[in-house]
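Figure 6 in text form: structure in, sequence out.
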């Protein structure tokens, strides 16, 4: 049974930082492209960042480029999202997602590309 468990969310002031983690089990993590998405109240779930299973390819949404950093540790079956310079508009539930890929450099930026999802962790940025 695949499980993706996010942690690290919370309440932070504008300009602050948080580091999200997503621990994976029940799948071959080292063969999975991983992604982070977020969903604000009343809005669609949107792409934030993605990383290939090799870690060699990374892609960010324009809204977070330069502020967020995605990384992974295949030995720990964990993907991270370091979020700096947080803004109130970053307030959302953040989800990690996984999909097995054959290409070492494949990154996936669309929700429909992913097979497995975590339950999400709330990030609230106060102004």
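Output sequence:
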């Amino acid at each position: 049974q695949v499980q993706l468990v996010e942690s690290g969310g919370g309440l932070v002031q504008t300009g602050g930082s948080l580091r999200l983690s997503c621990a994976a089990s029940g799948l071959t993590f080292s063969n999975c492209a991983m992604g982070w998405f977020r969903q604000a109240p009343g809005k669609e779930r949107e792409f934030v960042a993605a990383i290939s299973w090799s870690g060699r390819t990374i892609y960010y949404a324009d809204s977070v480029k330069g502020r967020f950093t995605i990384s992974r540790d295949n030995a720990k079956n964990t993907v991270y999202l370091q979020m700096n310079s947080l803004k109130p508009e970053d307030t959302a539930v953040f989800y990690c997602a996984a999909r097995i890929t054959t290409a070492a450099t494949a990154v996936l930026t669309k929700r429909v590309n992913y097979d497995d999802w975590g339950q999400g962790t709330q990030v609230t940025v106060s102004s």
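Caption detail: The radius of gyration is 13 Å.
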